[in-house]
Design goal:
Helix content: 10-25%
Number of helices: 1
Structural class: mainly beta
Order of helices and strands: HEEEEEEEEEEEEEEEE
Number of domains: 2
Strand content: 35-45%
Mean pLDDT: 81
Number of strands: 16
């Protein structure tokens, strides 16, 4: 009887230790993303930071009259169903850090598109005009197929998902149609386009 109790206690301890190890591993996984974006939310109360996607508000990033030359940026480490996990924010002077789970709504932050290719568009009263565009890939890798090009001039896009330094986004092409796909790190600017160094 005593041996049986001893075995039951040992089994319980092993299960408890396995749970602790698994929990620790789950909460110490390396960041899936390494992306910066700027806040576009204009709520004077500040941007809500939640304990999990669409859960309790645990903090707020202070509101600032968002100016092109002084945006508040967040660092994104994960994404899930339209929500972004962040580990810090900064306004250039102050840095706020989060030790645990910290999630914000993805549509309240954006990046500018830098663009790296000029193409000519013919037609219209001005004749041929030159537009800056950015390539959109099928997957977060440069060797994957191109889906098309986004108009990179004064266009802000949201972060729908992320992988390493790539972001999944959706924006307008030169013909006005919407295109969804992956934007390369060198095409992103965590700032307003007018203040982005191209």
């Amino acid at each position: 009887m005593k041996k049986q109790k001893f075995h039951l206690i040992m089994i319980a301890m092993i299960i408890a230790n396995l749970f602790i190890v698994c929990f620790a591993e789950e909460n110490n996984q390396p960041a899936r993303c390494d992306v910066s974006a700027f806040i576009t939310d204009k709520d004077p109360k500040g941007l809500n930071v939640r304990s999990a996607p669409d859960k309790n508000v645990i903090s707020r990033i202070p509101y600032k009259n968002y100016q092109p030359e002084q945006p508040i940026t967040v660092h994104i480490v994960d994404a899930k169903t339209g929500w972004l996990k962040i580990d810090r924010w900064t306004d250039g002077l102050t840095i706020g850090k989060f030790a645990g789970e910290a999630w914000i709504y993805g549509k309240l932050v954006a990046v500018s598109i830098k663009g790296d290719e000029n193409i000519k568009v013919y037609g219209g009263p001005e004749g041929a005009t030159t537009h800056l565009v950015a390539n959109i890939h099928e997957k977060p890798a440069a060797e994957t197929p191109l889906l098309g090009q986004l108009d990179a001039e004064n266009q802000l896009v949201n972060v729908l998902d992320c992988q390493d330094k790539w972001i999944l986004t959706a924006g307008k092409m030169l013909d006005g149609k919407l295109l969804k796909g992956w934007l390369a790190p060198q095409q992103q600017c965590p700032n307003f386009s007018s203040a982005c160094v191209l």
